[in-house]
Model the fold of this input.
Amino acid sequence: MISAQKNESIRNSGVGGVCLMSTKWRDEQHSSFINFISCFLTSNSFRLNFVPIAPDLIFNCGGLSLAFIFVINSDCNNPGPMFSRAQKLKTQFAHLYVVVILPSKEQNDSFVHSYFSHSKDIGRPTFVPALDLEMGFENIVRIAHARGVCKRHDAVSKLKAERERSVQGMNAFLRVVSSIPRAEPHDANALQSIGSIEAIAKASKENILENTDISPEKAEMISRFFRDCKFNMSPRIS
Done:
């Protein structure tokens, strides 16, 4: 069982999601186990929906979709169908895990032997052994939650980086515009309608007047600032 502390960390992470359960797989399970799954998902901020899907479970968490095969009764004498199904589904789902219930050492040893005999690509998909049903499902939720948190943190990091680049770009824009004689903060805001510094540098006086509320005198000043090197480099009287 997952400890209360780990359950609390999942609930407090702010990353929940949706669990899609195969109707076929659901009908093969005991009702008490389905009730356990439903309660466990609810307590960890996941919604449960029953749909006809190829995997046994699909978790949508933190912007990431993960598929699971949940093998309750592994046939140690005939493991081929399990591995064949895994190989087929891994071509359809980028993130696929196979959770296998192996309550005894003998079953675990047999699984390890068959795994290396049948797996064509070690580690794809990922097989996760578990001692019992509840542990197996809790492992599934932990995997989905952990991957969702990582995905969300990655998205947040990208947004922060983009925001920083945007701020840096605006600062550079303001520095250039403020170096134009007689330019004021209002003028910098107005010039944004033209676009980047490069676009402003290429804009004619007429184009500046057409797209901003800047006065003709300032439009002339801006146009000369970027086009006339002598004007740009000459000393200014403040």
Confidence is low (pLDDT under 50) at residues 1-6. Strands lie at 17-22, 46-51, 57-61, 64-71, 96-101, 126-130. The radius of gyration is 31 Å. The chain is about 55% helix and 15% strand.
